[in-house]
Design goal:
The complex is a heterotetramer of chains A (558), B (110), C (338) and D (361). Chain C is α+β, with helices and mostly antiparallel strands. Chain C is built from seven helices and twelve strands. Chain C folds into three domains: 2-100, Helix Hairpins (Orthogonal Bundle), CATH 1.10.287; 107-226, Cupredoxins -  blue copper proteins (Immunoglobulin-like, Sandwich), CATH 2.60.40.420; 232-328, Cytochrome c-like domain (Cytochrome Bc1 Complex, Chain D, domain 2, Orthogonal Bundle). Chain D has helices at residues 8-11, 32-67, 69-76, 81-106, 110-140, 163-188, 191-233, 236-248, 265-278, 281-285, 288-324, 334-358, and strands at residues 254-255, 259-260. In chain D, strand 1 (254-255) and strand 2 (259-260) form a beta hairpin. Chain D is globular and about 70 Å long. Classes of the chains: A mainly alpha (558), B mainly alpha (110), C alpha+beta (338), D mainly alpha (361).
Chain lengths: 558, 110, 338, 361
């Protein structure tokens, strides 16, 4: 039985849970009260709107790519335009959407509440990082509009030094620089908040797993992102001053650029997936109404993934002509990351065992995540195996693999988390049945888009091709059909959420039966989250949390 | 922190700077870079421990800053290890040596 | 499934037909990993769906809220995957070392990559020819069967990557250094060669064909390769493709939809320049444009991908041959390629 | 040192005016200790990002030094180690005054605090003044980064291009403004304004003091160098290199000053082969792709460091304003402490830059 089917008791009728008359959304009003807010919840919501818009933009580019590839040649874009489109798709999705999506949007909203504090440690810095993000967005749009960036999102030298789109490269690299600092400050803020502001009783091992994941993510953000900063700064200097560090014409070495770039960009993959794993840990336990299986293993594995993630960047460069020893060492280290990821999947399944599984929209997204992420993780194995990577590198197999991890993983978890916490953020319930339909469409569309790409890849279809051999056309068409389906699914999800804003019924304090602290404060939460420090218990203790028809949600019974 | 300690640290730093300038006048070969880096590290340690009060600070802050050095070492270590490995393939080196197999057939039309 | 796993061209499944000694090794490893993945994935999904059904929320059923913990189980599902990935790593690394260690007594080929053409130079100094398949003129690399082939690869501009799916072999071509690769051919036939590192506008057109032939045919091909055409016009036509002019400039009814201006109908005429002036399209202009391309850019091509200088890479008589070729297009219809 | 203190930026953030909180305690913190710990940890984490930020350049440095040590040896000869040593001393002294400032803030020695901050600011300005001389001197020799490197025989050509003058324009304007401000403060007899304007004006003067100091030392060094180079010019390598440049560049376009633009690897390779044979390191490294690369790294490292100095000067100025208002006391000196940490890090990085860039033999 999903929540939507349950008897609805309108809090307005005087019964049921107290719907707060006063909450953070109506605490103050006016444009400036949002633009200058120091409230982490409002900043989180602003991020949410921002990253979703970026996602829409990036998604539009994705559909353009897929439609162009419908025919093996003479697509509707010129080669040059196609190159710009895939570059912008990648750059926007990575830098503007996936990296900030969960930490900055959901993390900002949830972290202080889950932790039981009033705000993050540095609220102004938090607002500052939001405006840095906005600046990055503007710079990216500039890069898009002045000439169109065509370097690929990786900015590999010497192409990025030689390309005629100099202005675009400069705008984009500066954008990446600024976005990097936005990400650093968010991470810094979270680490300080978690380290110094836990209320009494909130020990490290009483923190919800989402916070563990966010903490691990923040470590990466603080340690890896500065290297990206200096990399793009040197690249800009390369363009402006011809410094030659990465330019083979001046005896510089393009492979050095790749080392610099991937020292950040590989850990960045974990900036993307770790918070997603955190969300899934929350979703699985709440919607199974059962304590998480192997709490400590999940917590440790998050930190392990974050640290191991720094040791494996070389696997993006196996074919670049790295020294053999380095190649083999990187391959060995690469496999170490797969173990903690596998452990998490098993633990989530263990959580379902003998639980009480509520099938609703967030849970469906979580289950879709496990399915898709397992495929994404397992297809990493052939890519980590050196001999096989020689064949698969830079083919569609890689494209499919990282879309399974980043999109099937991060995006699906983001959507699951969004549906899960939507009632908390907006105080409105969405239509659960249509939500579940959206999850189903997304799931089918996603697999239809990317499964064929695995086959394309093993058969030798290189990535970033505007035209291709005729023999690959059927699989490409299948993929294009899938991408349209996926687009429809995402659109349905968006409509469900928007619909709820206007027509959704008021959300109870605890609509899903969660035991973490955000389900203690009202939906939406009051301005200060907690008037007094809340009593902290086990975040996964579901004993006595019962559905209460009167309230339309769950309450803790003694 | 008492004034005498501030001044003592400052003069120690000055003396070490003088030392590093002085030693650079001798040709010590490979040892030189290690010697000057060691002196620099001693100076850096003085700055961090005393001027930045890390000696009296919470251990967490020390872990944070020392931890970051581990990641710097990782970054430099792997990148240098790789660069060392493929050095032979760089064109300007291999042209000079001419012993590089295969390079011979690759002369550019001129 | 047959639709996905079969193909119009060849009845292969996951991989194109293997034609090098690496292929069996790579295919074996892939199949092994594929089965491991299936062995993990299928039980995971079955368990997930079963739990979803068996423990679904329903009237009269109430699962346990207590967190489970089972140390032996957790250790098991840590140790088994670890053992498996160690095996995968080992197999992959052994295979890689095989690919990286170049044996002695190889047939050497010099490979030069530039935007957006591959050129191959054989041991006897001969260069590759071209072959038209469909509407596309592919550079063709001829190799002997059952031989160890070594490639000495160099890039003249940006990163490229040399990939022959049928050989399961790939290596980036990095400017500023030599990268080497080798493989052992096992089967005659014509195979695709792709550039897999993004290199600009016509990245996807930077393909070539590899023809593996018998020893005798290879010798013949080598002899043919050293003989450049005597006739300046024929020579010019060949150079037009070999030097990569055809990847940017349309000429006659050939060439790619590249960023450069077409040669057709230009010779002897006055052509407008980006600077607002105009210039006579003659020997001097062509020569200057080859050696110092940015000096006099044609109108409308200021923002196009820049042409690299051929100074130091082209002989005088080659320039002459190209000029002869351009002259022959004096009256060709002034259209651009697609 | 571990007394309970508060950081400034949170103190202003008491937007809700909870009356149970003192004004300097942000409403989302439980108590002063928590607030102080948060600020301090945040600062240390920021320093971590700075360390990793610079690590990229140190990586590039070690990579290319490891590859071409002779280039680094050759080029460091053009870095004036006297200037480097003077600057090291200046920065170390500024670290001392900064640390002393923290002490003064804790002890409520307001005047001493302003003085110490002013001394730090002055040292920073002097550092930049010396740096300006160093940079402009190198530019006049054509020692530009990467592709702008002009490979004349360095030391031989001395054009007066007025680089130093251009570098001084902005500081000059700022000093004049500070002077006007100081006169204004005298006229209004405002103690606060005098305390702010004084250090800034002194800092401006220190910049020009640094410039003057740098010029004196640089002039000494140049005469020394010129003699050294007169000897070098007679070596066969130097002259041969020059002629080879031209023959290799027959077909190549020429830039002003007869400098060949290297268009492919070929010209680079040629020159290298030739110079390797001649065993004259000077000739082989004196070109864009070698010495130019060193100067790229030099300018990147010292330039980014100088940007950090300028950033530090801005926050120190802000501290001086607060100190002149006598805002700091034993319960509240977090900003001084945190800016101090930042400033010491800038010093810390210079401690490594100095031997790595200047003292290579």
């Amino acid at each position: 039985m999903s929540v939507a089917d349950r008897p609805i008791v309108s809090p307005a009728s005087g019964e049921g849970a107290a719907y707060p008359e006063h909450h953070f959304l109506n605490h103050t009003s006016g444009f400036l009260s949002w633009a200058l807010t120091l409230d982490h919840k409002r900043i989180g919501l602003m991020y949410l709107v921002g990253v979703m818009s970026s996602f829409a933009l990036g998604g539009m580019f994705a559909l353009m790519i897929r439609l162009h590839l419908w025919n093996f040649k003479d697509g509707w874009l010129s080669n040059q335009t196609y190159n710009q489109v895939f570059t912008l798709h990648g750059a926007i999705m990575v830098f503007l959407f996936i990296i900030p999506s969960i930490p900055a949007a959901l993390g900002n909203f949830l972290l202080p509440i889950m932790l039981g504090t009033k705000d993050v440690a540095f609220p102004r810095l938090n607002l500052g990082s939001f405006y840095l993000w906005v600046t990055g967005l503007v710079l990216f749009l500039t890069a898009l509009s002045i000439t169109g960036l065509d370097t690929g999102w990786t900015f590999y030298t010497p192409y990025s030094i030689e390309t005629q789109k100099g202005g675009a490269v400069l705008a984009a690299t500066f954008g990446v620089f600024v976005l990097g600092f936005s990400s650093i400050f968010t991470g810094l803020n979270f680490i300080v908040t978690i380290n110094t502001m836990r209320p009494p009783g909130m020990t490290w091992f009483r923190m919800p797993l989402f916070l563990w994941a966010t903490y691990a993510t923040s470590i990466i953000q603080v340690l890896a992102t500065p290297v990206l900063g200096i990399t793009v700064l040197l690249l800009s200097a390369e363009r402006l001053l011809g410094i030659g560090i990465f330019d083979p014409k001046l005896n510089g070495d393009p492979v050095t650029f790749q080392h610099f770039f991937w020292f950040y960009s590989h850990p960045a993959v974990y900036i993307m997936i770790l918070p997603a794993m955190g969300i899934i840990s929350e979703l699985m336990s709440v919607h199974c109404h059962k304590g998480i299986f192997g709490y400590r293993m999940i917590a440790y594995s998050s930190v392990a993934i974050a640290l191991f993630g720094f040791l494996v960047w070389g696997h993006h460069m196996f074919t670049s002509g790295m020294a053999d020893v380095t190649t083999i060492v990187f391959s060995a280290l690469t496999f170490t990351v797969s173990i903690p990821s596998a452990i998490k999947v098993f633990n989530w399944l263990g959580t379902m065992y003998q639980g009480t599984v509520s099938l609703n929209t967030p849970m469906l997204y979580a289950l879709a995540f496990i399915f898709l992420f397992t495929i994404g993780g397992l297809t990493g194995l052939p890519l980590g195996a050196l001999a096989l990577d020689m064949h698969m590198h830079d083919t569609y197999f890689v494209v499919a693999h990282f879309h399974y991890v980043m999109m099937g993983g991060t995006l699906v978890a983001f959507l699951g988390g969004l549906f899960h916490w939507w009632p908390k953020m907006t105080g409105k319930m969405f239509n659960d049945n249509v939500g579940m339909i959206s999850a189903a469409i997304v799931f089918v569309g996603f697999n239809l888009t990317f499964l064929p790409q695995f086959v394309l890849g093993t058969r030798g279809m290189p990535r970033r091709y505007a035209t291709y051999l005729e023999e690959f056309q059927d699989l490409h068409r299948l993929s294009t059909i899938g991408s349209l389906t996926l687009g429809i699914g995402l659109l349905v999800a968006l409509l469900v959420l928007l619909h709820s804003l206007f027509y959704g019924r008021r959300a109870p304090t605890n609509p899903w039966g969660g035991a973490t602290l955000e389900w203690v404060c009202s939906s939406p939460p009051p301005h200060d989250n907690f008037a007094t420090a809340p009593t902290v218990g086990d975040p996964y203790d579901f004993n006595g949390i019962e559905y209460d028809a009167k309230q339309g949600g769950y309450v803790k019974k003694a | 922190m008492p004034i005498w300690m501030l001044l003592a640290v400052f003069f120690a730093l000055l003396i070490l700077t003088g030392l590093t300038v002085y030693q650079s006048q001798f040709d010590l070969g490979n040892a030189e870079i290690w010697l000057s880096l060691t002196i620099a590290t001693v100076k850096a340690a003085l700055v961090i421990l005393f001027f930045m009060h890390l000696l009296w600070d919470k251990p967490l802050n020390a872990i944070v800053i020392l931890g970051s050095l581990i990641f710097v070492a990782l970054f430099l270590g792997f990148t240098l290890m790789d660069a060392e490995g493929y050095r032979e393939n760089l064109i300007y080196k291999s042209t000079v040596k001419a012993s590089q197999p295969g390079a011979k057939g690759d002369e550019i039309d001129n | 499934m047959p639709f996905i796993l079969a193909d119009k061209v060849a009845p292969y499944a996951w991989f194109p037909e293997g034609a090098s000694s690496f292929a069996p090794q790579v295919d074996y490893l892939f199949t092994g990993i594929l089965w491991i993945c299936i062995l993990f994935f299928v039980p995971i999904v079955i368990a997930m769906v079963y739990f979803m059904w068996a423990y679904r929320e329903r009237p009269g059923y109430r699962g346990s809220p207590e967190a489970l913990h089972n140390t032996p189980l957790e250790i098991t599902w840590t140790v088994i995957p670890t053992a498996i990935v160690v095996w995968i790593f080992w197999e992959g690394a052994v295979g890689y070392l095989d690919m990286a260690r170049i044996p002695k007594g190889t047939v050497d080929v010099n490979v030069t990559a530039k935007k957006w053409v591959w050129s191959f130079k054989y041991e006897n100094g001969g260069e590759n020819s071209f072959e038209k398949i469909g509407t596309v003129d592919y550079p063709k690399l001829v190799l002997p069967v059952d031989q160890d082939i070594k490639l000495i690869m160099r890039s003249e501009d940006v990163l490229h990557s040399f990939f022959i799916p049928a050989f399961r072999a790939k290596r980036d071509v990095v400017p500023g250094r030599y990268n080497y690769m080798w493989f052992h051919t096992t089967k005659t036939g014509i195979y695709d060669l792709f550039c897999t590192e993004y290199c600009g506008d016509n990245h996807s057109n930077m393909n070539a064909k590899v023809e593996v032939v018998s020893e005798e045919e290879y010798k013949k091909a080598l002899e043919k390769a050293v003989q450049e055409p005597e006739d300046p016009l024929e020579r010019g036509k060949l150079l037009y493709k070999r030097l990569g002019c055809s990847t940017c400039h349309y000429a006659g009814d050939e060439g790619a939809n590249g960023p450069g201006p077409s040669y057709n109908g230009s010779w002897g005429k006055s052509v407008p320049l980006e600077s607002g002036e105009s210039v006579q399209f003659d020997e001097n202009y062509v020569r200057e444009s080859i050696l110092n391309p940015p000096a006099k850019k044609r109108k409308g091509y200021g923002a196009a991908s820049p042409m690299n200088s051929y100074a130091g890479r082209i002989k005088d008589e080659q320039i002459d041959a190209l000029i002869t070729f351009m002259k022959s297009l004096e009256n060709a219809p002034a259209k651009t390629g697609k | 040192m571990t007394a309970i203190q508060e950081t400034a930026h949170e103190s202003e953030h008491a937007q809700d005016h909870h009356h149970d909180h003192p004004a300097w305690l942000a409403h989302h913190f439980d108590d002063a200790e928590q607030q102080f710990d948060a600020g301090k940890l945040g600062m240390w984490l920021f320093l971590v990002t700075e360390v990793l930020f610079f690590s990229g350049m140190f990586c590039a440095y070690s990579l290319y030094r490891n590859r071409d040590p002779q280039v680094f040896e050759f080029c460091s000869r053009f870095l004036n180690e006297k200037l480097g040593a003077i600057n090291t001393g200046v920065l170390l002294f500024s670290s001392l005054t900064m640390a002393w400032a923290v002490r003064a803030a804790q002890l409520k020695q307001h005047k001493l605090l302003v003085g110490m901050l002013g001394a730090t600011l002055g040292c920073a300005a002097m550092f930049l003044g010396v740096k300006a001389v160093e940079y402009s001197h190198k530019w006049e020799l054509g020692l530009f980064p990467g592709k702008f490197y002009v490979s004349q025989i360095p030391g031989a050509a001395h054009g007066e291009h007025g680089y130093l003058g251009s570098l001084c324009i902005v500081p000059l304007i700022l000093t004049i403004i500070a002077g006007v401000y100081y006169i204004y403060s005298l006229a209004t007899m405002s103690k606060f304004h005098q305390q702010v304007a004084g250090p800034i004006l002194v800092a401006g003067a220190c910049f020009f003091g640094g410039v003057q100091l740098g010029r004196i030392l640089e002039a000494e060094e140049t005469t020394h160098h010129a003699a050294e180079h007169a000897a070098h010019e007679h070596s066969p390598g130097a002259s041969h290199d020059h002629s080879q440049d031209h023959s290799a560049g027959e077909l190549l376009p020429e830039k002003e000053g007869g400098e060949v633009i290297a268009l492919g690897h070929k010209s680079i390779e040629d020159v290298k082969v030739m110079s390797e044979e001649l065993k004259t390191p000077d000739a082989s490294v004196n070109q864009k792709s070698m010495a130019g690369l060193f100067f790229s790294i030099y300018y990147c490292m010292t330039g980014v460091h100088a940007v950090h100095i300028i950033g530090g000067m801005l926050v120190i100025t802000w501290l001086i304003v607060k100190a002149a208002r006598e805002e700091f006391h034993d319960q509240y000196f977090g900003p001084v402490d945190n800016v101090g940490l930042y400033w010491h890090l800038v010093d810390f990085i210079w401690i490594y830059l100095f031997p790595l860039l200047y003292l290579i033999t």
